[in-house]
Amino acid sequence: MGVDIRVVDGNVADSDAWYRGLHHGFTLPPAFTEEELALRRARIDLRRAWGAFDQDRCVATYRSFDQRLTVPGGRDVAANAITAVTVSATHRRRGLLTRMITSDLAEAKERGDTVATLVAAEYPIYGRYGFGPATSTTAWEVDRLRAGLDRRAPVPDPAEGGSIEFLDGAEVRKLGPELYERFRPGCPGAIDRPALWWDRATGEVRMTPSWTEPFHALHRDADGIPQGMVTFRADTRWTNGMPDETATVASLFAVTPAAERALWHFLLSVDWVTRVKADHRAPDDLLPDLLPDPRAAAVTDQADFLWLRPLDIPAMLTARGYPAEGELVLRVDDPLGLTAGSYLLTASPQGADCVPTSRPADLTLGTGALATLYLGERSAGRLARLGRLTEERPGAAARADLLFHTPRRPWLPDIF
Ligand SMILES: CC(=O)SCCNC(=O)CCNC(=O)[C@H](O)C(C)(C)COP(=O)(O)OP(=O)(O)OC[C@H]1O[C@@H](n2cnc3c(N)ncnc32)[C@H](O)[C@@H]1OP(=O)(O)O
């Protein structure tokens, strides 16, 4: 018998088999309790979850869902977010992923989504489907004792004003979503956090038995308005009779730079903590420069993170902001043929227009290189030097860099 690929939503046996297949594919223990499966049925939208079934066994999984992605300038676009991609070791390299992803991308384009997004487990998988790396991620480890902060100084700095208070999970669910929605437009690469995100971050919904309650701290400015939040966990290590704890940041975001600085200083002022670890930070995070001794912060990991795939190039290019005025004709190659063509971009700080054109191209690039350029992850000049973008007219890459310049690198604070 062949393998049958079908949507799993609405069928309890299929969706339970799908979760077992998913864990198999991610080399996690495939056993679920009935309670865990029921929780997933109640809270996770499987309307766009596909499974490949070999008799009753689910041998490949794939899911997509609606997401909002912030782009430079502060608007957001409709994204088809892809997750839970696995093929069982018994059925790999037979085209199962290719079948599921090509039909999902075609449906997403048909539906009117602007881009598709995912976090790639391995670099070589998704380029063939027209994706390119669009943000980077950095992990830090800070040696608090070497950081040079004055241990007696109050936090926040009284000269800047404001206050920091601990919150419990219920308070985070109340204050967090509004605060995050004020932060998100200023962070190209950030995505929306639906209610389930907050429920999981605060333990209201526990999908994994190993979940432990974190600490949440809120920064308010001098007027009492929430401007930033940090969530972290601490271990309880002692070495040679001395406290030697590691605080691990789960999330730290702020609307104002003053709040961001105050939250880092707060974390680094917690007595007993000698080390702060933070994953999934922006490549141009305020660390390490906000420390008196920046060498106290070491990069422990650095990699590509969000991958993006154009689905509607005019919608994508008109949604973002441009700091300069100019025209550019982009010829885009697309390995799946979904967006291939030439596009005339007319951009200015007041807004942009983008239409298909028959004019000769200034630049030729693939959808993957466009993804890398779009949020400000890499410059056109760098992509040209890498051979991933061709300048059809001299000076066109420099012109693109004036238009596509962003003051900060894009950052995806979350994993999905
Ligand atoms: C968004 C996310 O969920 S990321 C998570 C991705 N999942 C994982 O990493 C879990 C472990 N890996 C897997 O389950 C599988 O290897 C998958 C899902 C990545 C790919 O499954 P496959 O059975 O290889 O899919 P399929 O047969 O359709 O092949 C896709 C193509 O990608 C290639 N490919 C797949 N995985 C890799 C890889 N890790 N490195 C290089 N090439 C790869 C295949 O060779 C194939 O190329 P071809 O079309 O030129 O022959």
Automatic annotation (TrEMBL):
<dbReference type="InterPro" id="IPR041380">
    <property type="entry name" value="Acetyltransf_17"/>
</dbReference>
<dbReference type="GO" id="GO:0030649">
    <property type="term" value="P:aminoglycoside antibiotic catabolic process"/>
</dbReference>
<dbReference type="InterPro" id="IPR051554">
    <property type="entry name" value="Acetyltransferase_Eis"/>
</dbReference>
<protein>
    <submittedName>
        <fullName>Predicted acetyltransferase</fullName>
    </submittedName>
</protein>
<comment type="subunit">
    <text>Homohexamer; trimer of dimers.</text>
</comment>
<feature type="binding site">
    <location>
        <begin position="85"/>
        <end position="87"/>
    </location>
    <ligand>
        <name>acetyl-CoA</name>
    </ligand>
</feature>
<dbReference type="Pfam" id="PF13527">
    <property type="entry name" value="Acetyltransf_9"/>
</dbReference>
<feature type="binding site">
    <location>
        <begin position="93"/>
        <end position="98"/>
    </location>
    <ligand>
        <name>acetyl-CoA</name>
    </ligand>
</feature>
<dbReference type="InterPro" id="IPR000182">
    <property type="entry name" value="GNAT_dom"/>
</dbReference>
<dbReference type="InterPro" id="IPR036527">
    <property type="entry name" value="SCP2_sterol-bd_dom_sf"/>
</dbReference>
<comment type="similarity">
    <text>Belongs to the acetyltransferase Eis family.</text>
</comment>
<dbReference type="InterPro" id="IPR016181">
    <property type="entry name" value="Acyl_CoA_acyltransferase"/>
</dbReference>
<dbReference type="Pfam" id="PF13530">
    <property type="entry name" value="SCP2_2"/>
</dbReference>
<keyword id="KW-0012">Acyltransferase</keyword>
<feature type="active site" description="Proton acceptor; via carboxylate">
    <location>
        <position position="416"/>
    </location>
</feature>
<dbReference type="InterPro" id="IPR022902">
    <property type="entry name" value="NAcTrfase_Eis"/>
</dbReference>
<keyword id="KW-0808">Transferase</keyword>
<feature type="domain" description="N-acetyltransferase">
    <location>
        <begin position="5"/>
        <end position="152"/>
    </location>
</feature>
<dbReference type="GO" id="GO:0034069">
    <property type="term" value="F:aminoglycoside N-acetyltransferase activity"/>
</dbReference>
<feature type="active site" description="Proton donor">
    <location>
        <position position="126"/>
    </location>
</feature>
<dbReference type="InterPro" id="IPR025559">
    <property type="entry name" value="Eis_dom"/>
</dbReference>
<dbReference type="Pfam" id="PF17668">
    <property type="entry name" value="Acetyltransf_17"/>
</dbReference>
